[in-house]
Amino acid sequence: MSTYSSSSQDSIYSAPGPRQYAVVTPGMMSNPQSISANDKAQLLSALRTHRVNTLTELRRIERIFSALNTPDVKEPMTTAWAYYVNSNNLLNELRGLTKNYPFSSECIEEAKWQTTEDPASTRSSNYCWLVLSKIKNKGLIAKHARLLAVKPTMWGGRTPTAAGVEKLATACINEWTRALDQMLRNWSTASTSGR
Questions:
Q1: What is the enclosing helix (H) or strand (E) of 23?
Q2: Model confidence over 66-124: pLDDT tens digits?
Q3: Phi, psi values for residue 150, rounded to 5°
């Protein structure tokens, strides 16, 4: 049998099937203080190896770790949030929610810059929440929607009318705001876990 055959079990080209695992189990969520040391180690490993890359899963882990309130979980959680934002996972999730008018990467970049320059950003170790809050509180959506709407590339190289710019900016503002609000709903209160 050829080593290139797809039926060969030992082929260098055969890939194992998808690994199914649940990072956060229902039992962990119902009583976070009772998770085992092994479960906690698996959660920390998932954070450190970036196996968790959605806002929902990161929030689930953050809720469990908040209930545990042990110092050994702060650094991995903080690092995981920074990785989530800086590796464009936040942008990808926002763009998944904004199919008609893809969310502006420039808006996120400005929010990241403003967050790192803001001395008050030390009030939370959750970089994602800080960036999303900065977008909302500083009116960055309206600013970047208008900047996008006046770009000639959005109009096939022709000069847009004022009414056309306003219509496009409004459409972007509405869709981007819905996506931002949906993401922020993952926090019932402000994320204030200290750094």
A1: none
A2: 888 889 999 999 999 999 999 999 999 999 999 999 999 999 999 999 999 998 887 78
A3: -95, -5
pTM: 0.82
DSSP secondary structure code for residue 159 in this structure:
P
Sign of the CA dihedral with 79 first, then 189, 176, and 179 last: positive
Amino acid letter at 59? Answer: R
User: Among 74, 191, 44, 52, which residue's Cα sits nearest to residue 132?
Assistant: 191
DSSP SS3 for 4: coil
Query: Do the Cβ atoms of 35 and 42 come closer than 8 Å?
Result: no
The torsion angles phi and psi of 189, rounded to 5 degrees, stand at -135, 165
41, 56 contact by CB (below 8 A): no
